[in-house]
Design a protein that fits this description.
By secondary structure, this protein is an alpha/beta fold. 37% of the residues lie in helices and 14% in strands. Helix 9 crosses helix 12. Belongs to the amidase family. GO terms for molecular function: asparaginyl-tRNA synthase (glutamine-hydrolyzing) activity; glutaminyl-tRNA synthase (glutamine-hydrolyzing) activity; transferase activity.
Length: 461
Protein backbone atom coordinates (compact mmCIF):
# COMPACT_ATOMS: atom_id res chain seq x y z
CA UNK A 1 0.00 0.00 0.00
CA UNK A 2 1.40 3.39 -1.00
CA UNK A 3 0.16 4.94 2.24
CA UNK A 4 2.60 2.75 4.21
CA UNK A 5 5.69 3.84 2.27
CA UNK A 6 8.36 5.44 4.40
CA UNK A 7 9.01 9.09 3.70
CA UNK A 8 12.56 8.31 2.55
CA UNK A 9 11.28 5.63 0.16
CA UNK A 10 8.57 7.93 -1.17
CA UNK A 11 11.02 10.77 -1.73
CA UNK A 12 13.36 8.45 -3.63
CA UNK A 13 10.55 7.11 -5.81
CA UNK A 14 9.30 10.62 -6.58
CA UNK A 15 12.85 11.74 -7.37
CA UNK A 16 13.09 8.92 -9.93
CA UNK A 17 9.63 9.87 -11.23
CA UNK A 18 8.30 6.43 -10.35
CA UNK A 19 5.68 7.93 -8.02
CA UNK A 20 3.64 11.12 -8.21
CA UNK A 21 3.06 13.31 -5.14
CA UNK A 22 -0.59 13.47 -6.19
CA UNK A 23 -0.76 9.68 -6.33
CA UNK A 24 0.81 9.42 -2.87
CA UNK A 25 -1.49 12.02 -1.30
CA UNK A 26 -4.53 10.41 -2.89
CA UNK A 27 -3.58 7.06 -1.35
CA UNK A 28 -3.17 8.65 2.10
CA UNK A 29 -6.50 10.48 1.85
CA UNK A 30 -8.29 7.34 0.63
CA UNK A 31 -6.85 5.41 3.58
CA UNK A 32 -8.02 8.10 6.00
CA UNK A 33 -11.53 8.03 4.59
CA UNK A 34 -11.67 4.31 5.42
CA UNK A 35 -10.05 4.37 8.87
CA UNK A 36 -10.96 7.73 10.38
CA UNK A 37 -14.54 6.83 11.34
CA UNK A 38 -13.05 4.24 13.72
CA UNK A 39 -9.70 5.77 14.66
CA UNK A 40 -10.63 9.49 14.96
CA UNK A 41 -7.07 10.77 14.73
CA UNK A 42 -7.81 14.01 12.85
CA UNK A 43 -9.24 17.28 14.12
CA UNK A 44 -9.09 18.91 10.71
CA UNK A 45 -8.61 17.74 7.13
CA UNK A 46 -6.80 20.10 4.77
CA UNK A 47 -7.18 17.96 1.67
CA UNK A 48 -8.00 20.70 -0.84
CA UNK A 49 -4.95 22.84 -0.09
CA UNK A 50 -2.84 19.70 0.26
CA UNK A 51 -3.77 18.56 -3.23
CA UNK A 52 -2.76 21.92 -4.66
CA UNK A 53 0.60 21.54 -2.93
CA UNK A 54 0.96 18.00 -4.28
CA UNK A 55 0.49 19.29 -7.81
CA UNK A 56 3.17 21.93 -7.19
CA UNK A 57 5.44 19.20 -5.81
CA UNK A 58 5.07 17.28 -9.06
CA UNK A 59 6.50 20.27 -10.89
CA UNK A 60 9.36 20.56 -8.39
CA UNK A 61 10.41 16.96 -9.02
CA UNK A 62 10.18 17.50 -12.77
CA UNK A 63 12.36 20.62 -12.75
CA UNK A 64 14.89 19.35 -10.21
CA UNK A 65 14.02 21.71 -7.33
CA UNK A 66 12.59 19.17 -4.91
CA UNK A 67 13.24 19.92 -1.23
CA UNK A 68 13.88 17.39 1.60
CA UNK A 69 10.18 16.80 2.34
CA UNK A 70 8.82 17.62 -1.11
CA UNK A 71 5.38 16.09 -1.55
CA UNK A 72 5.42 14.14 1.74
CA UNK A 73 2.09 14.16 3.66
CA UNK A 74 2.73 15.35 7.24
CA UNK A 75 0.17 15.33 10.05
CA UNK A 76 0.56 18.20 12.54
CA UNK A 77 -0.37 17.93 16.21
CA UNK A 78 -3.17 20.46 16.76
CA UNK A 79 -1.35 21.87 19.79
CA UNK A 80 1.14 23.41 17.35
CA UNK A 81 -0.72 26.44 15.95
CA UNK A 82 -1.11 27.44 12.31
CA UNK A 83 -1.92 31.08 11.69
CA UNK A 84 -5.50 31.60 10.53
CA UNK A 85 -6.67 28.13 11.56
CA UNK A 86 -8.39 26.98 14.72
CA UNK A 87 -6.24 26.37 17.79
CA UNK A 88 -8.61 24.67 20.22
CA UNK A 89 -6.32 22.26 22.13
CA UNK A 90 -9.17 19.80 22.63
CA UNK A 91 -11.08 22.18 24.90
CA UNK A 92 -14.64 23.44 24.72
CA UNK A 93 -13.24 26.56 26.35
CA UNK A 94 -11.19 27.35 23.22
CA UNK A 95 -13.67 26.14 20.63
CA UNK A 96 -13.44 28.37 17.56
CA UNK A 97 -10.28 30.23 18.67
CA UNK A 98 -8.13 31.20 15.68
CA UNK A 99 -4.34 31.10 15.88
CA UNK A 100 -2.44 34.31 15.22
CA UNK A 101 0.96 32.69 14.72
CA UNK A 102 2.42 29.56 13.13
CA UNK A 103 4.65 27.28 15.18
CA UNK A 104 8.29 27.29 13.95
CA UNK A 105 8.14 23.51 13.47
CA UNK A 106 5.21 23.85 11.07
CA UNK A 107 6.89 26.67 9.17
CA UNK A 108 10.05 24.60 8.71
CA UNK A 109 8.09 21.58 7.49
CA UNK A 110 6.22 23.56 4.85
CA UNK A 111 9.39 25.39 3.79
CA UNK A 112 11.00 21.97 3.26
CA UNK A 113 8.15 20.93 0.94
CA UNK A 114 6.11 18.91 3.43
CA UNK A 115 2.37 18.86 2.76
CA UNK A 116 0.22 19.44 5.85
CA UNK A 117 -2.86 17.42 4.96
CA UNK A 118 -4.29 16.95 8.47
CA UNK A 119 -4.07 18.03 12.09
CA UNK A 120 -4.18 15.49 14.87
CA UNK A 121 -6.06 15.00 18.11
CA UNK A 122 -4.82 15.53 21.65
CA UNK A 123 -6.40 15.31 25.10
CA UNK A 124 -7.55 18.65 26.47
CA UNK A 125 -4.51 20.95 26.77
CA UNK A 126 -2.30 17.90 26.10
CA UNK A 127 -2.34 17.14 29.80
CA UNK A 128 -2.87 13.37 29.71
CA UNK A 129 -1.23 10.15 28.54
CA UNK A 130 -4.34 9.13 26.55
CA UNK A 131 -6.27 10.94 23.83
CA UNK A 132 -9.92 11.82 24.23
CA UNK A 133 -11.74 15.08 24.90
CA UNK A 134 -15.21 16.51 25.15
CA UNK A 135 -14.51 18.51 21.99
CA UNK A 136 -13.11 15.80 19.69
CA UNK A 137 -14.22 12.50 21.22
CA UNK A 138 -12.16 9.34 21.64
CA UNK A 139 -9.11 8.54 19.52
CA UNK A 140 -8.46 4.79 19.31
CA UNK A 141 -5.44 2.60 18.73
CA UNK A 142 -5.38 1.12 15.19
CA UNK A 143 -3.92 -2.12 16.59
CA UNK A 144 -6.89 -2.71 18.90
CA UNK A 145 -9.77 -0.26 19.05
CA UNK A 146 -10.40 -1.03 22.71
CA UNK A 147 -7.09 0.61 23.58
CA UNK A 148 -5.75 4.16 23.54
CA UNK A 149 -3.00 5.29 21.18
CA UNK A 150 -1.52 7.05 24.19
CA UNK A 151 -1.12 10.76 24.61
CA UNK A 152 -0.83 13.50 24.34
CA UNK A 153 0.37 13.09 20.73
CA UNK A 154 -2.06 10.20 20.34
CA UNK A 155 -3.62 11.43 17.13
CA UNK A 156 -0.20 11.59 15.49
CA UNK A 157 0.73 8.10 16.67
CA UNK A 158 -2.61 6.66 15.55
CA UNK A 159 -2.39 8.36 12.16
CA UNK A 160 1.06 6.91 11.48
CA UNK A 161 0.00 3.42 12.54
CA UNK A 162 -3.18 3.60 10.45
CA UNK A 163 -1.32 4.73 7.32
CA UNK A 164 -2.97 8.14 7.14
CA UNK A 165 0.31 10.11 7.26
CA UNK A 166 3.95 9.41 6.44
CA UNK A 167 5.37 11.82 9.02
CA UNK A 168 3.85 13.51 12.05
CA UNK A 169 4.73 15.99 14.75
CA UNK A 170 4.38 15.62 18.49
CA UNK A 171 5.27 17.36 21.71
CA UNK A 172 6.47 15.83 24.96
CA UNK A 173 6.16 17.21 28.50
CA UNK A 174 6.03 13.88 30.32
CA UNK A 175 6.24 11.30 27.56
CA UNK A 176 3.70 12.65 25.07
CA UNK A 177 5.76 11.65 22.03
CA UNK A 178 7.17 8.41 23.39
CA UNK A 179 3.98 6.98 24.94
CA UNK A 180 2.06 7.09 21.61
CA UNK A 181 5.13 5.79 19.79
CA UNK A 182 5.20 2.76 22.08
CA UNK A 183 1.43 2.13 22.12
CA UNK A 184 1.14 2.53 18.32
CA UNK A 185 4.28 0.70 17.22
CA UNK A 186 5.98 3.71 15.65
CA UNK A 187 9.14 5.73 16.33
CA UNK A 188 9.19 8.94 18.37
CA UNK A 189 12.03 11.24 19.38
CA UNK A 190 12.17 13.52 22.42
CA UNK A 191 14.97 15.89 21.44
CA UNK A 192 17.13 17.39 24.16
CA UNK A 193 15.85 20.70 25.50
CA UNK A 194 16.49 23.55 23.06
CA UNK A 195 17.27 21.39 20.03
CA UNK A 196 13.91 22.13 18.37
CA UNK A 197 12.44 25.63 18.74
CA UNK A 198 9.13 26.18 20.49
CA UNK A 199 6.81 29.07 21.26
CA UNK A 200 6.70 31.14 24.47
CA UNK A 201 6.09 30.58 27.27
CA UNK A 202 6.65 26.84 27.15
CA UNK A 203 9.89 27.16 25.19
CA UNK A 204 11.33 28.12 28.60
CA UNK A 205 9.97 25.00 30.32
CA UNK A 206 12.74 22.42 30.30
CA UNK A 207 10.23 19.56 30.44
CA UNK A 208 8.74 20.65 27.08
CA UNK A 209 9.99 19.28 23.77
CA UNK A 210 8.56 19.41 20.25
CA UNK A 211 9.72 16.53 18.11
CA UNK A 212 9.26 14.16 15.18
CA UNK A 213 7.30 10.91 14.84
CA UNK A 214 7.32 8.42 11.97
CA UNK A 215 7.22 4.71 11.18
CA UNK A 216 11.00 4.34 10.73
CA UNK A 217 14.12 5.64 12.43
CA UNK A 218 15.41 7.11 9.18
CA UNK A 219 12.18 9.05 8.69
CA UNK A 220 12.37 10.45 12.22
CA UNK A 221 15.94 11.56 11.49
CA UNK A 222 14.79 13.14 8.23
CA UNK A 223 12.09 15.17 9.97
CA UNK A 224 14.36 16.03 12.90
CA UNK A 225 16.93 17.50 10.51
CA UNK A 226 14.21 19.73 9.06
CA UNK A 227 12.77 21.06 12.33
CA UNK A 228 15.95 21.39 14.45
CA UNK A 229 18.11 24.47 14.84
CA UNK A 230 18.10 27.95 16.39
CA UNK A 231 15.16 30.26 15.85
CA UNK A 232 14.91 34.00 16.51
CA UNK A 233 11.71 33.60 18.55
CA UNK A 234 13.17 31.09 20.98
CA UNK A 235 15.96 32.20 23.31
CA UNK A 236 16.43 28.59 24.47
CA UNK A 237 17.05 27.24 20.97
CA UNK A 238 20.60 25.96 20.54
CA UNK A 239 23.32 27.08 18.15
CA UNK A 240 24.70 25.66 15.95
CA UNK A 241 22.14 23.36 14.38
CA UNK A 242 22.95 19.67 14.72
CA UNK A 243 22.58 17.80 11.43
CA UNK A 244 22.15 14.06 11.96
CA UNK A 245 24.45 12.09 9.63
CA UNK A 246 23.38 9.05 7.57
CA UNK A 247 22.67 6.19 9.95
CA UNK A 248 24.78 3.03 9.80
CA UNK A 249 23.36 1.27 12.84
CA UNK A 250 26.87 0.20 13.81
CA UNK A 251 26.96 -0.40 17.57
CA UNK A 252 30.05 -2.63 17.72
CA UNK A 253 31.98 -1.92 20.90
CA UNK A 254 29.33 0.38 22.34
CA UNK A 255 28.52 -0.06 26.02
CA UNK A 256 24.77 -0.07 26.62
CA UNK A 257 23.24 -0.03 30.10
CA UNK A 258 20.01 -2.01 30.53
CA UNK A 259 17.47 -1.15 33.21
CA UNK A 260 14.21 -3.06 33.31
CA UNK A 261 12.60 -1.09 36.13
CA UNK A 262 14.35 2.31 36.43
CA UNK A 263 14.40 1.68 40.14
CA UNK A 264 11.08 0.28 41.28
CA UNK A 265 8.64 0.59 38.36
CA UNK A 266 6.32 -2.42 38.02
CA UNK A 267 6.70 -3.70 34.46
CA UNK A 268 4.29 -6.12 32.84
CA UNK A 269 5.62 -9.36 31.32
CA UNK A 270 5.03 -8.52 27.64
CA UNK A 271 7.00 -5.30 28.06
CA UNK A 272 9.82 -7.17 29.82
CA UNK A 273 9.96 -9.68 26.97
CA UNK A 274 10.23 -6.94 24.34
CA UNK A 275 12.95 -5.13 26.27
CA UNK A 276 15.00 -8.30 26.73
CA UNK A 277 14.66 -9.03 23.00
CA UNK A 278 16.01 -5.56 22.24
CA UNK A 279 18.95 -6.11 24.59
CA UNK A 280 19.78 -9.44 22.93
CA UNK A 281 19.58 -7.84 19.49
CA UNK A 282 22.13 -5.23 20.52
CA UNK A 283 24.42 -7.91 21.92
CA UNK A 284 24.18 -9.87 18.69
CA UNK A 285 25.12 -6.70 16.79
CA UNK A 286 28.33 -6.34 18.80
CA UNK A 287 27.35 -4.05 21.66
CA UNK A 288 28.23 -4.76 25.28
CA UNK A 289 24.93 -4.75 27.20
CA UNK A 290 25.06 -4.77 30.99
CA UNK A 291 22.09 -4.74 33.32
CA UNK A 292 22.30 -1.93 35.89
CA UNK A 293 20.35 -0.60 38.85
CA UNK A 294 19.17 2.97 39.30
CA UNK A 295 18.33 4.21 42.83
CA UNK A 296 15.11 5.90 41.76
CA UNK A 297 11.63 5.34 43.14
CA UNK A 298 8.32 6.00 41.43
CA UNK A 299 7.29 8.18 44.36
CA UNK A 300 10.42 10.28 43.99
CA UNK A 301 9.91 10.73 40.24
CA UNK A 302 6.25 11.70 40.61
CA UNK A 303 6.95 14.11 43.48
CA UNK A 304 9.47 16.01 41.34
CA UNK A 305 7.16 15.99 38.32
CA UNK A 306 4.11 17.12 40.32
CA UNK A 307 6.05 20.07 41.75
CA UNK A 308 7.17 21.08 38.28
CA UNK A 309 3.77 20.68 36.62
CA UNK A 310 2.02 22.56 39.41
CA UNK A 311 4.45 25.47 39.14
CA UNK A 312 4.43 25.83 35.35
CA UNK A 313 2.04 23.83 33.17
CA UNK A 314 -0.58 23.24 35.84
CA UNK A 315 -0.61 26.89 36.85
CA UNK A 316 -1.93 27.97 33.46
CA UNK A 317 -4.67 25.35 33.49
CA UNK A 318 -5.57 26.19 37.10
CA UNK A 319 -6.35 29.77 36.13
CA UNK A 320 -8.82 28.53 33.51
CA UNK A 321 -10.34 25.98 35.88
CA UNK A 322 -11.22 28.64 38.46
CA UNK A 323 -13.68 30.37 36.13
CA UNK A 324 -14.62 27.67 33.62
CA UNK A 325 -14.57 24.34 35.46
CA UNK A 326 -17.88 23.30 33.87
CA UNK A 327 -16.31 23.37 30.39
CA UNK A 328 -13.27 21.27 31.30
CA UNK A 329 -12.85 17.51 31.16
CA UNK A 330 -12.66 15.60 34.43
CA UNK A 331 -9.00 14.74 33.89
CA UNK A 332 -8.15 18.38 33.21
CA UNK A 333 -9.77 19.52 36.44
CA UNK A 334 -7.97 16.72 38.28
CA UNK A 335 -4.67 17.88 36.79
CA UNK A 336 -5.38 21.48 37.81
CA UNK A 337 -6.36 20.44 41.34
CA UNK A 338 -3.24 18.37 42.04
CA UNK A 339 -1.54 19.61 45.17
CA UNK A 340 2.19 18.86 45.04
CA UNK A 341 4.02 17.51 48.05
CA UNK A 342 6.95 19.81 47.34
CA UNK A 343 7.42 23.47 46.49
CA UNK A 344 8.79 24.33 43.06
CA UNK A 345 12.20 24.99 44.61
CA UNK A 346 12.16 21.68 46.48
CA UNK A 347 11.19 19.99 43.24
CA UNK A 348 14.26 21.46 41.53
CA UNK A 349 16.44 20.17 44.34
CA UNK A 350 14.96 16.71 43.85
CA UNK A 351 15.43 16.91 40.08
CA UNK A 352 19.15 17.41 40.66
CA UNK A 353 19.29 14.36 42.92
CA UNK A 354 17.42 12.30 40.33
CA UNK A 355 19.71 13.24 37.45
CA UNK A 356 23.00 12.61 39.26
CA UNK A 357 23.01 8.78 39.16
CA UNK A 358 21.89 8.84 35.52
CA UNK A 359 24.63 11.29 34.62
CA UNK A 360 27.21 9.14 36.38
CA UNK A 361 25.88 6.04 34.63
CA UNK A 362 26.15 7.67 31.21
CA UNK A 363 29.80 8.51 31.87
CA UNK A 364 30.42 4.75 31.86
CA UNK A 365 27.95 3.78 29.13
CA UNK A 366 27.17 5.17 25.69
CA UNK A 367 23.40 4.88 26.19
CA UNK A 368 20.69 3.45 28.42
CA UNK A 369 18.05 0.96 27.22
CA UNK A 370 14.78 0.66 29.15
CA UNK A 371 11.05 0.14 28.52
CA UNK A 372 9.08 3.12 27.24
CA UNK A 373 5.98 2.16 29.18
CA UNK A 374 5.38 -0.36 31.94
CA UNK A 375 2.11 -1.49 30.34
CA UNK A 376 1.34 -2.22 26.67
CA UNK A 377 -1.52 0.34 26.51
CA UNK A 378 -4.30 2.06 28.45
CA UNK A 379 -8.01 1.48 27.81
CA UNK A 380 -9.25 3.87 25.11
CA UNK A 381 -11.63 5.76 27.40
CA UNK A 382 -9.55 5.74 30.57
CA UNK A 383 -10.40 8.91 32.51
CA UNK A 384 -7.08 9.53 34.22
CA UNK A 385 -8.01 7.91 37.50
CA UNK A 386 -6.19 5.02 39.21
CA UNK A 387 -5.17 2.11 37.01
CA UNK A 388 -3.87 -1.26 38.27
CA UNK A 389 -0.39 -2.20 37.07
CA UNK A 390 0.59 -5.80 37.73
CA UNK A 391 -2.32 -5.88 40.15
CA UNK A 392 -1.16 -2.87 42.16
CA UNK A 393 -3.54 0.15 42.02
CA UNK A 394 -2.09 3.61 41.63
CA UNK A 395 -1.77 6.71 39.47
CA UNK A 396 -2.11 5.66 35.83
CA UNK A 397 1.06 7.62 34.97
CA UNK A 398 3.00 5.00 36.91
CA UNK A 399 2.31 2.90 33.83
CA UNK A 400 4.76 4.98 31.81
CA UNK A 401 8.52 5.26 32.25
CA UNK A 402 9.11 8.45 30.32
CA UNK A 403 8.93 11.21 32.95
CA UNK A 404 12.45 10.65 34.37
CA UNK A 405 13.82 11.82 31.02
CA UNK A 406 11.76 15.01 31.03
CA UNK A 407 13.44 15.66 34.36
CA UNK A 408 16.74 14.78 32.63
CA UNK A 409 15.64 17.11 29.85
CA UNK A 410 18.97 17.51 28.08
CA UNK A 411 19.14 13.77 27.37
CA UNK A 412 17.91 12.78 23.88
CA UNK A 413 15.48 9.84 23.94
CA UNK A 414 14.14 7.69 21.09
CA UNK A 415 11.30 5.20 21.47
CA UNK A 416 11.26 2.30 19.01
CA UNK A 417 9.00 -0.77 18.77
CA UNK A 418 10.14 -3.89 20.63
CA UNK A 419 7.34 -6.38 19.98
CA UNK A 420 3.65 -7.14 20.31
CA UNK A 421 1.76 -7.80 23.54
CA UNK A 422 -0.94 -10.41 24.05
CA UNK A 423 -3.66 -7.80 23.52
CA UNK A 424 -2.39 -7.15 20.01
CA UNK A 425 -0.87 -3.77 20.84
CA UNK A 426 2.82 -2.96 20.44
CA UNK A 427 5.47 -2.51 23.12
CA UNK A 428 8.43 -0.15 22.93
CA UNK A 429 11.85 0.59 24.35
CA UNK A 430 13.57 3.89 25.05
CA UNK A 431 17.15 4.62 24.07
CA UNK A 432 18.48 7.35 26.34
CA UNK A 433 21.65 9.22 25.41
CA UNK A 434 24.16 11.41 27.13
CA UNK A 435 23.23 15.07 27.19
CA UNK A 436 22.94 16.36 23.62
CA UNK A 437 24.39 13.16 22.11
CA UNK A 438 21.57 12.68 19.61
CA UNK A 439 23.74 10.83 17.08
CA UNK A 440 24.48 7.84 19.31
CA UNK A 441 20.82 7.44 20.18
CA UNK A 442 19.88 7.34 16.49
CA UNK A 443 22.63 4.83 15.68
CA UNK A 444 21.45 2.47 18.43
CA UNK A 445 17.84 2.86 17.25
CA UNK A 446 18.83 2.12 13.65
CA UNK A 447 20.54 -1.06 14.83
CA UNK A 448 17.48 -2.18 16.78
CA UNK A 449 15.13 -1.47 13.89
CA UNK A 450 17.25 -3.63 11.57
CA UNK A 451 17.84 -6.42 14.09
CA UNK A 452 14.39 -6.91 15.60
CA UNK A 453 11.63 -8.70 13.67
CA UNK A 454 9.07 -6.27 12.34
CA UNK A 455 5.68 -6.04 14.03
CA UNK A 456 3.72 -5.70 10.78
CA UNK A 457 0.70 -3.46 10.39
CA UNK A 458 -2.34 -2.95 12.59
CA UNK A 459 -5.49 -4.96 12.01
CA UNK A 460 -7.84 -2.01 11.46
CA UNK A 461 -9.31 -2.41 7.95
Amino acid sequence: MLCYLSATEAHALMSRRELSPVELLTAVIDRAEVTEPRINAFTERLYESAMEQAKAAEAAYLNGTARPLEGIPVAIKEEQPIEGRTHEEGSLLLQGVIAEVTHPVVTRITQAGGIVHARTTTPEFSCAGFTHSRLWGVTRNPWNLDYSPGGSSGGSGASLAAGTSLLATGSDIGGSIRIPASFCGVVGFKPPFGRVPALPPFNLDQYCHDGPMARTVADVALLQNVIAGPHPWDVASIRPKLELPPLTGDVRGMRIALSMTLGDYLVEPDVVAGTLAAAEALRAAGAIVEEVELPWTRAQIMAAADAHFAGIFGAGIRELAIEHADLLSDYTRRFADTEPELSFYQGMELEGLIYRPLGELLERFDALLCPTTAVPAFPAEHDGGPLPIKGEPGDYMLGVMTIPFNIASRCPVLSVPSGLAAGGVPTGVQIVGRTYDDVTVFQVAACLEAALPGIGRPAVP
